[in-house]
Known about the structure:
Strand order of the largest sheet: 7-6-8-9-5-10-11-13-14
Helix content: 25-40%
Number of helices: 10
CATH topology: Rossmann fold
Largest sheet: 9 strands, mixed
Radius of gyration: 20 Å
Bound molecules: adenosine-5'-triphosphate, magnesium ion
Amino acid sequence: MEAREPQVVREAIMGLGEARDRAPRLEGVATGVEGLDELFFAIEFKEGRPHRKPLGGVPLGAVVNITGTPDTGKSLMAEQFAVRQAADGQKVCLVTVETPAAFVSTALEQRARAMGFDFSKIEKNIILLDAASYTRLREDMPTLLDTLAYIYRTYRVKRTIIDSVTGLYEAREMLARSVVRALYSFCKKWYQTALFISQKRSSHEELSAEAAGGYAVGHIVDCTMVLSKELILSERAAQIWKQEVGSIVRLFRIDGCRLCGHDTRIHLLEIDELGLVHIGPPLGDVRGRR
Ligand SMILES: Nc1ncnc2c1ncn2[C@@H]1O[C@H](COP(=O)(O)OP(=O)(O)OP(=O)(O)O)[C@@H](O)[C@H]1O
Ligand SMILES: [Mg+2]
């Protein structure tokens, strides 16, 4: 029998110092969602004692999964992030998987107006990739990644949004992890701060990433945020939530973030009449006040 030649992947081996030199700085990237940026923090030591220092956004270079059942505000949050980053002068790539690009442009224009930004100043900073209209981008991962690499090189993009990753493994859910893993590794290689939207079908475990249509997608990404809504249908629910029967209570939670400290409480979430998402106070504070 022929002896096997050893195969060593030398480029995967490095000293800790070398790895550290390649790491992004721990700083926040503003999301454009009121009440969200303050929920992430770093720990600083002053005279040997640890202190919380707010990051002012999601950690730079993080791949963040925003998950939730339908109509919970995921796309609105993604649009606010795109508008805010574009207004800050960043180039943003928004991969639209569900809604054709023309419709997304209308939504982004509405978000920009509601946030008080001049759309004509930010439109050149947002590059849309229409995977909703071009099946190949949804079904052939190497083509999607080649197209993204082309966009990153051409426009010098450092912010990526995919709405949604679930649409990239529709009817092939056993591939969910490998699809998300490929996108995660790709975003890391290109130093993207990224939002992956994923859809959650089950109403079980409402406020965890568990049962998110993405089969343990939460284990792959750096950070997960979960959105949910409660319909107040009975007198009992109305009493518990201190709301009228027939109303909706929207909730938000950061379900984990590997890269920095974060608030772990359940917060109220509001979508105002302009279609802007706001993260409200923690549920405990609201209940206690009443
Ligand atoms: N322009 C707007 N003005 C006011 N409210 C809006 C506006 N756009 C959306 N909404 C409200 O926000 C809700 C959430 O919308 P969004 O599109 O963000 O949901 P989603 O979580 O992305 O849902 P899906 O999983 O179906 O894509 C809508 O159902 C609607 O009630
Ligand atoms: Mg959506």
